[in-house]
Design a protein that fits this description.
With about 325 residues, the chain is α/β, with parallel strands linked by helices. The protein contains 10 helices and 8 strands. The chain folds into 2 domains: about 70 residues, no CATH class; about 220 residues, Rossmann fold (3-Layer(aba) Sandwich), CATH 3.40.50.1820.
């Protein structure tokens, strides 16, 4: 007769301890679902923020009876075709066209060359009436330009350098940049690499993209800072190839110096705190200027202060 195999018996107490309580398993499950949901939301929102739908152009220099030329040129890197308008400045009798610097305007995030909230086309008319030639163009993934990613300055720097190449080739002379918001920060990055830029007007820039987004991404994402901001900042780089630390205006202004920069910023800006411009201006106060306003909204300094804005900008440009 075969011996009966021994039956391994686990003490009841140990068996009870090895099985987690139902409430604990429910909590762990809910936490896992919450984490997956947060990551999913962050991926979706991060993708939407970096792939905004381009705004169509719904205005033209013709409305203001401005002479203009449709232009296109490649980004300095990547070969994307960018489109814009060249608006020649009016030349007073007996005045040479090369006396005043050419100006390249750079628009902000989720905008196009019109930068309608800042009434950029009206500002361009003010400048061309005073003899300044202006190039208005669309960054990648904006207006009529090619591209599908908006990188808040990282790739747009190459677009602005392409615009500089076009201006220097087709209308050589003095050159200045005038940017709004993302375009202002991008202007600082481009000027740091391009010595032909003699000066920059930076209207409502951020100082350093990573530092800015850590404190202000919720303004754009419409999500609570925690846990979504750190998640999105970790997810965006592999999604877009963007290194936000490289969008560094604080380092760029050191490379621009001793060329001048005029910073314009409202103390009531709800999107980019004016302290961003302050920190950039403080790096080189001997060459940089800061004009703070009390206007409402983001990068909307020109519309309510037209005469003073034009006076401040042209006074700065005249010194280049």
């Amino acid at each position: 007769m075969k011996p009966t195999p021994a039956i391994s018996r686990v003490p009841r107490r140990r068996r009870r301890m090895s099985k987690s309580p139902l409430w604990l398993r429910i909590v762990v499950g809910l936490l896992a679902v919450a984490v997956i949901a947060c990551v999913g939301i962050s991926v979706y929102v991060g993708w939407q923020l970096s792939h905004p739908v381009p705004k169509a152009l719904d205005d033209s220099p013709e409305r203001l009876e401005l002479a203009y030329e449709n232009v296109q040129f490649p980004s300095r890197e990547g070969g994307l075709t960018l489109k814009g308008w060249y608006l020649p400045g009016k030349v007073a009798e007996g005045e040479g066209a090369a006396i005043k610097p050419n100006i390249i305007m750079a628009h902000g995030y989720k905008n196009n060359r019109l930068q309608k909230s800042a009434e950029a086309l009206s500002l361009a008319k003010e400048l061309t009436d005073r003899g300044y030639s202006v190039l208005m163009f669309d960054f990648r993934n904006a207006g009529e330009s090619e591209g599908s990613v908006t990188s808040i300055g990282y790739y747009e720097k190459h677009d602005l350098l392409g615009a500089i190449d076009w201006m220097n080739k087709n209308h050589p002379g003095k050159l200045a940049l005038l940017g709004f918001s993302m375009g202002a920060s991008t202007s600082l990055l481009a000027a740091a690499e391009e010595p032909s830029v003699l000066g920059v007007v930076a209207d409502s820039p951020f100082h350093h993209l990573t530092r800015y987004l850590k404190n202000n991404l919720s303004v754009w994402s419409k999500l609570p800072n925690f846990p979504f901001t750190p998640l999105i900042l970790h997810i965006l780089p592999p999604l877009t190839g963007v290194d936000t630390d490289q969008v560094n205006g604080l380092a760029a202004v050191d490379r621009i110096y001793p060329r001048p920069v005029l910073f314009i910023h409202s103390t009531n800006d709800p999107s980019i705190p004016y302290s961003n411009s302050e920190s950039l201006w403080e790096k080189h106060k001997d060459k940089f200027e800061l004009w703070t306003t009390a206007t409402e909204g983001h990068a909307r300094n020109y519309p309510p202060l037209k005469a003073e804005y034009v006076q401040k900008v042209t006074a700065f440009l005249e010194k280049l």
